[in-house]
Amino acid sequence: MRSFQDVLCIDDDDEYNFLTQEAFYDYHYNGKLTFMTSAEEALDYLAELETFPDIIILDINMPAMNGWDFLEKYEEKGFHKRFSSLIFMHSSSVFETDKERAARFASVKGFIDKPILLEDLETISTTHFG
Amino acid sequence: MKADDPLQVLKQRPKVLVVDDRQTERDIMQKLLSKLDVDVHTADSGQNALHQLIRHEYTLILLDIQMPIMDGIETARYIRTNPLTENIPIIFLTAYDKDDLNVLQGYKIGAIDYLIKPINEEILLSKVKTFMRSNVFEKQKEYEKILTELRLKNERLEKAEQEALVRLKEANLAKDVAQDAQQQLEEQKKELLRHTQNLEQFAYVATHDLRAPIINLDGMVKIFRKRGHVNGDNSDIFRRIELSISRVKNTLHDLIEVVTAKEAFEEEVEKLRFSDVFSDVLEDLEVQIKDSGASIHSDFSEAQSINYISRFLQSIMQNLLTNAIRYRSPERSALINVVTKQLSGSVLLTIKDNGIGMDESQKEKVFGLFQRLSKDAGGKGMGLYITKSQVEMCGGSIDFTSKPGEGTTFIIELPDMKRESDK
């Protein structure tokens, strides 16, 4: 039995989502894996849920509503109080300023450099679900 | 009005001094001379005459020779010894026309003329007029001379004033020109800044926007190989695809380094052990080192650690080590020595190789952007530019010594970036 069983990936890049899927495949993940290609869509999706995903992998750079905007709305709606999803910021270029910004959101547990690899999933598993 | 105004003195009526001990004689003289346009002053003795001469400027002195106590001759002698009065003409007045001795004595002290008493009115007036005329003439000449001088002075003043005005105009013009130039310069500066910012923005967007699809491409190709689609016929072309992607990836990585080399944060400074950072670098370069057969020695015993930015120190070491391997000599196996030395407030990092070396005159080029000295070594011409930026960004310096065919030694001074709050 794997540690996390429900994952939501928010990224506008379909090709990239294919790679993420592959990493989970390598990890022999057999839980629920959902992809949303916009932050708005993801918020709508979450609003309908009874239970939230264990993990949300959130791309920073997205058109219209980006990762940060998503986090603002997430807290505005009080999701962070009702559910204990672990959010991981995901980007091809992580800056120091991004880390400082993320510290303001309690739900954000870490950063993952793109591309996400099998090792990243193993690390999350041992660190947060060990 | 100023007393020493030369024109004022010249405009006054000429003064004549009559010196005689007898009242009647003085009255007669005054009466006779009143017919001329002159002021007549009188003195009743030689002493009084000398007193008067101190106070007034006389054009002519009429001097009686026969006077008690101080006679005319003695008075005249005194007059002649004073530089202020020595040139005033004197007409002696004498009662005896045969008094040759007196007359001669009179001439010896520079008298100009004499008159015999009793005074003949016509002769007196004629002689006095002659002196006055000559005096007026002299004065006129002097007056004109002074006027000419004044005119010249005025002309010079006017000229000087005009020149000053011209200079002022020129100065104002120069000032305007300078101000215009200054303004133009400021505008150019602003323009340049705008361009630089645009360029930086462009580089930032371009590199980051390119990065996402390259990551995708790289990932897809890896999956393709993993799934066993690479075989026989397509393995060569696939290998070339992978190589090309890897080149784009590396170039992009370096470009991002160039763009972000200008960003350093105080919070990033941490205590770093050279041996830790170096072994990370060796791990990253494992394949290259193995393929090249390079033997690498390091000695960090003298300076073991430094407060620095990890990603910079790693990048600096990695770039210099990569260069040392890339530009190794084909004639001998590569030997690379990495040593640290403690200086006060900084650490000297030395990376020495026995590679192909380079011409020291190419120094500018070596540290320039997109500069490569050799076309077959596979560099992208960004490494040393990045290294230099990362070193200088943190207040350090980088230099090298090199001999073609013998090797190169890079010397980097890294300042210990101890945080202000830790001091």
From TrEMBL, chain A:
<protein>
    <submittedName>
        <fullName>Response regulator</fullName>
    </submittedName>
</protein>
<feature type="modified residue" description="4-aspartylphosphate">
    <location>
        <position position="59"/>
    </location>
</feature>
<dbReference type="InterPro" id="IPR052893">
    <property type="entry name" value="TCS_response_regulator"/>
</dbReference>
<dbReference type="InterPro" id="IPR011006">
    <property type="entry name" value="CheY-like_superfamily"/>
</dbReference>
<dbReference type="Pfam" id="PF00072">
    <property type="entry name" value="Response_reg"/>
</dbReference>
<keyword id="KW-0597">Phosphoprotein</keyword>
<dbReference type="InterPro" id="IPR001789">
    <property type="entry name" value="Sig_transdc_resp-reg_receiver"/>
</dbReference>
<feature type="domain" description="Response regulatory">
    <location>
        <begin position="6"/>
        <end position="129"/>
    </location>
</feature>
TrEMBL record, chain B:
<dbReference type="GO" id="GO:0016301">
    <property type="term" value="F:kinase activity"/>
</dbReference>
<dbReference type="Pfam" id="PF00072">
    <property type="entry name" value="Response_reg"/>
</dbReference>
<keyword id="KW-0175">Coiled coil</keyword>
<keyword id="KW-0597">Phosphoprotein</keyword>
<dbReference type="InterPro" id="IPR001789">
    <property type="entry name" value="Sig_transdc_resp-reg_receiver"/>
</dbReference>
<keyword id="KW-0808">Transferase</keyword>
<dbReference type="Pfam" id="PF02518">
    <property type="entry name" value="HATPase_c"/>
</dbReference>
<dbReference type="InterPro" id="IPR003661">
    <property type="entry name" value="HisK_dim/P_dom"/>
</dbReference>
<feature type="modified residue" description="4-aspartylphosphate">
    <location>
        <position position="64"/>
    </location>
</feature>
<feature type="domain" description="Histidine kinase">
    <location>
        <begin position="205"/>
        <end position="418"/>
    </location>
</feature>
<dbReference type="InterPro" id="IPR036097">
    <property type="entry name" value="HisK_dim/P_sf"/>
</dbReference>
<dbReference type="InterPro" id="IPR003594">
    <property type="entry name" value="HATPase_dom"/>
</dbReference>
<dbReference type="InterPro" id="IPR036890">
    <property type="entry name" value="HATPase_C_sf"/>
</dbReference>
<feature type="domain" description="Response regulatory">
    <location>
        <begin position="15"/>
        <end position="132"/>
    </location>
</feature>
<protein>
    <recommendedName>
        <fullName>histidine kinase</fullName>
        <ecNumber>2.7.13.3</ecNumber>
    </recommendedName>
</protein>
<feature type="coiled-coil region">
    <location>
        <begin position="140"/>
        <end position="202"/>
    </location>
</feature>
<dbReference type="InterPro" id="IPR004358">
    <property type="entry name" value="Sig_transdc_His_kin-like_C"/>
</dbReference>
<keyword id="KW-0418">Kinase</keyword>
<dbReference type="InterPro" id="IPR005467">
    <property type="entry name" value="His_kinase_dom"/>
</dbReference>
<dbReference type="InterPro" id="IPR011006">
    <property type="entry name" value="CheY-like_superfamily"/>
</dbReference>
